[in-house]
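quick one before i forget lol
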Amino acid sequence: MIVTNVNTVPGKNILEHFGIVQGSTVRAKHVGRDIMASLKNLVGGELKGYTELLQDAREEATKRMVEQARQLGANAVVNVRYATSSVAQGAAELFAYGTAVRVE
């Protein structure tokens, strides 16, 4: 499955358009990560626990989007975008969406 954030797949023609596909996941913060983040805020630097949490969320949302595209018969997802939103105290949704297509 080709996944790209541009409107086309360079060197390939779009043969069929299946519409918008999506994938999402909702993740909650971990108490241990919150404590470490609070300490890191005092000295500065990357919040590695949160970086890992967001990376895992992006991978899961992308995987779900790709699976939806595959079920439609697509072999590519173009114009992929990501969005986040807060859904509850300490929990956020990561949302991936794009256009499912079949390319030659």
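fyi The two ends are 12 Å apart (CA to CA).
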